[in-house]
Design a protein that fits this description.
The chain is mostly helical. The chain has a domain of 35 residues. 49% of the residues lie in helices and 8% in strands. The protein is globular and about 40 Å long. The model has no long low-confidence stretch (mean pLDDT 95).
Length: 76
C-alpha cells in the first residue's frame, strides 16, 4: 500500500532514517508500487510490497550510507 506521509512509513524506517531519507524511501516505494503491480514485472516470487520495499531501500542507499555510529548519513 502506498504511503501518504512519513508518519505512515513502517517504524523500522521512521526510527532509523533521517527525514530526507524517509522522503526518498516514501517516493521510491510509491513509484515502485505502481510500476511493479503485475507479477511478471517482478523478480523471483517477490510480492508487490516486497519489491517496493527493496526498491525504496536501494533508492535510500544511493544517497545515504550507514556510518560507524550505526546511523544513516548523506553520502558526500
Amino acid at each position: 500500500m502506498p504511503y501518504k506521509t512519513r508518519t505512515d512509513l513502517p517504524d523500522s524506517v521512521q526510527h532509523v532514517l533521517p527525514a530526507h531519507a524517509q522522503d526518498i524511501y516514501k517516493e521510491a516505494f510509491n513509484s515502485a508500487w505502481d510500476e511493479y503491480k503485475h507479477k511478471e514485472e517482478r523478480r523471483d516470487d517477490a510480492t508487490r510490497e516486497e519489491t517496493a520495499h527493496r526498491v525504496a531501500w536501494a533508492a535510500v542507499k544511493h544517497q545515504y550510507e550507514k556510518g560507524d555510529d550505526d546511523k544513516w548519513h548523506k553520502k558526500k
